[in-house]
Amino acid sequence: MKRFALTVSFVLAALQAPGAWAADPAPASTSYPPHTISNSQLRVLPRNADGRSYQLHIHLPASFGKDAKRRYPVLYVTDGYWDFPTVVASYDNMVYDKVLPEFIVVGLGYAGEGLDFGQLRTWELSPVRLGPQDGDSGHADKFLATLEREIIPFMEREYRADPAHRMLAGSSLGGLFTLYAMYRKPALFEGYIAASPAVVADGDWIIGQAKAHAATGKPINARLYVTGAEYEWPAFLAGIKRYQALLPELKHPGLVWQSRIIDGERHAGTKAESYARGMRFVFEPLAPETGPSKD
Q1: What tens digit of pLDDT does each residue of 7-18 get?
Q2: Predicted TM-score (pTM) of this structure
């Protein structure tokens, strides 16, 4: 019964994602130009050894073209096909408020038409095997390797992304992947935003990883922001709360963290606030200003 409930929760997480139940769009018309996000572009990477082709949703800072030698921090966001517009909207507003530095936003997605995002993300964002109804899963190690060996080098070569300031963010399975990356490769990123992470996967597997890492005494020199939703599925929220409660006890050397349960929201509804507050927290050391507005 526990496994069945967990499987259902992941299916619901995919179905409740923005656009999952959207009607077929109206036919395109040459009379109306398509909406685009300013200072943004799509790049498709060559198919990798696992047969997967990634499409990157890239949002560049307003000053990007003004100094060809300047390097920028970068935030990598899982589920870019869903979450990129939400992150970019908050980013632009907070850069205007001077509480965020300029940085590059990279939404991680897939190239191709008619794709099943739910199955694709389950394959690569889950570090453990899920239930049989979720299809092939448990390949987060391969996706993390792709990030480290292909996607990050591409961004640092082609877009002057700063290797000293990399951040990672994700929601649900993406949040679980974010925590997995922090424990598996703690030096790869210096900031992590885990929005409503799927801590309950495989009986709180990620909590076991957290305890194992803490036992080594090795540092995690990073900032971590973790959220949950007040009206999450009960078992899902309980897992998040167990992880949040454990963080003070783990005492990971070097890790600066904050956690929050977002009032009045369900699962996917946490994204806007989680990403906005999370960006502000993980980028705080680089922010032009902090605290109240200055005259």
Answers
A1: 434 444 444 444
A2: 0.87
